[in-house]
Specification:
The structure is a homotetramer. Chain A is an all-alpha fold and about 200 residues long. Chain A folds into two domains: about 55 residues, Arc Repressor Mutant, subunit A, CATH 1.10.10.60; about 120 residues, Tetracycline Repressor, domain 2 (Orthogonal Bundle). Chain A contains nine helices and no strands. Chain A is elongated and about 65 Å long. Chains A and B meet through helix 6, helix 7, helix 8 and helix 9 of A and helix 6, helix 7, helix 8 and helix 9 of B. The structure holds a DNA duplex (31 and 31 nucleotides).
DNA sequence: CACTAAACGAGACGGTACGTCGAGTCTTGGA
DNA sequence: TCCAAGACTCGACGTACCGTCTCGTTTAGTG
């Protein structure tokens, strides 16, 4: 909506070719190196774009990485339908563990790592990924409560943290693997905390 | 044993004054800036030390930060004694939440963030902090099992992840605060997952 | 010709202000210190220029010194006209001795000294200074031959070496001064070698 | 004399093995690199000697190079005897040209180059090499005067400069080679300047 | 024959400068 | 007005040597 009524601007319009080329270069480069080691210089070189063009549209390589990330990996690990809340959560958690054990996990952990020194990167991560998923998770839990599976006194946010916290913990600290055993055992044990007494 | 017969080394011995001065400078500098923004140059300047001396003994600013960290904050958040396992864990978790809500938490999160691109920093964190604490936590849980409080089928590692994962989750992602309410609510809810049916 | 059709180049053009500032800083610094003790760092500092800008356009401080030198001292010690070859050479030699006894001599000797380990500096010295002067000297000697003053069997290059070699000898080795007595005595004695029997 | 009455000193005497090893290392290293590029560090490394030992006995790498030089190349290019002064000088000049065209010339030119910024190196060169040779040359010229070959009004120092200056000129500036033709032509032409009218 | 005391190797120290990289900005000409 | 190209200032990188400084270890005399 707002885009269509965007004010008419004089001058040459933004080059979509450049935008795509930049995001693509970032994505390609992140396959072979750390976000930390990625340089604006290299992105410009790789995408045949002037550095100024990058600076004109992005404030940091982190937010640029975030855009590249969004462009490529949005649709992911939905909650299955037509199952009990317990089953649906179990299955979705397992598939998230699986997703985080590969490239996707590495990019998420690097983005959040970058966010430790750049608050807006972290905010961007939350707004563009996490919030949506947490909302979905909370809806499922509420459904479980309504259907009598879960304790009605649950603090929803806390419940989500207990379920997903362990996954992020292993993702960051890597003290133990995000393997099948974990994918199976975690829901079994963690969901106990949500059950009715 | 072997340490007492430590090999005689030729040459001028390492200056303990320099070592202390460097670690102290790192600690001071990290109070006002990000680990990412910390430069070896600045550390050398602040500690009145040659850059080469830093490079001689540390491989990166991250491992240096880790050493500074260890030097300053090792004795922290122990498990209280003479309490039931449930009580001891509850109290220790609360005090960890509290610790992570201040400077200590910021340094931990930055160190682990740095570890995302430097595996040995992460390893160092695990070896010098985490392992010791996890071992202590597992011991308490075992005690709880023996005393009939907790489910004897528990996977200890998984249990620890469920208890502490949510804390690290909020520490990293900062979607919700590490406040008193969380410090109180988390143990109550998460420990349910460990109880006997 | 080719210069006027110089290829159009993309990008920001070289800053003449920086170039001038650098060369000027070099010149000023060389007034108070040895070329050996001159550092790129100091030049950058003094001329308020990034080090990279210096490295972009010069390969070494020696070639930079040579450029600074050329910029400042090209027009020097011409051969007087309307005199006999003998007189013209005598006077020019005397004025060169005089020039070499001051700052000019010190810079020449240091540049050539630098050239002992950097062949292109030496080549630069020859191409941009010496060759032109030697050519002029040889022309005068030829004129002297034509006018019957000098021996027609003279090897011109050798003749020039005999006339000017002693000056450079004293300049480098400093075993004796480049004083008025030398300025007067050298032409008198050395030119005998060129005369007709 | 003075050496034999050298004051008795307590303590360990200077190690001749180290001295020899150092000088030898310098000599070897100078075969493959410039005096400018030679570092005390490298000499110590190569000669298996502590840096302090070098600094204890030499004030700079230049004076060290000079010592190494003296140790290896003192006996050189004497004046032949039983010849006329003209012949003796001619032959000695030719052999000097020849000597300077090889390694010997390169070391001399580098040492004198170093001397441009270190006056004592230059002085050392003069005292330990040049003076002796100039004295010998002046003696021969005087002999030539006595025997009626040369002009009795000659300034001896100036005469030596005229004879040898051209050799050093080519050695330093390298505008023309120190070849056989020069070795033959130079004495023929330059000695004319010394002859009786 | 132990005792001195300087010289020795090794190598850490505080520094300075190196030459390179990338940051973010600026200045062209062309689209 | 945007864009590519590329030069600009700035600051940090990690390295090489500088000359100095401890160390523990020789190695002659001397007492």
């Amino acid at each position: 909506m707002s885009k269509t009524i965007a004010k008419r601007k004089a001058g040459r319009p933004r080059s979509q070719a450049s935008r795509a080329s930049i995001l693509n270069a970032v994505w390609e480069l992140l396959k072979t190196q750390t976000l930390k080691d990625l340089s604006i210089e290299a992105i410009a070189r790789e995408s045949k774009v002037g550095k100024a063009t990058i600076y004109r549209w992005w404030s940091s390589k982190e937010s640029l990485a975030m855009d590249a990330f969004v462009e490529h990996v949005l649709p992911l690990t939905p909650f299955p339908e037509n199952l009990s809340a317990y089953e649906a959560i179990s299955m979705q958690m397992a598939s998230l563990v699986n997703a985080f054990s590969g490239d996707y996990g590495s990019i998420v952990s690097q983005s959040i790592a970058a966010g430790q020194s750049e608050p807006d990167v972290l905010e961007s991560y939350r707004e563009r990924f996490l919030d949506e998923r947490r909302t979905a998770a909370k809806a499922i839990i509420e459904k479980g409560i309504e259907e009598g599976e879960f304790d009605p006194d649950i603090d929803l946010e806390l419940a989500v943290d207990i379920l997903y916290g362990p996954i992020y913990f292993r993702l960051f600290v890597a003290h133990l693997p995000l393997d099948k055993q974990f994918a199976k055992g975690l829901p079994q044990r963690a969901l106990k905390a949500l059950l009715k007494d």
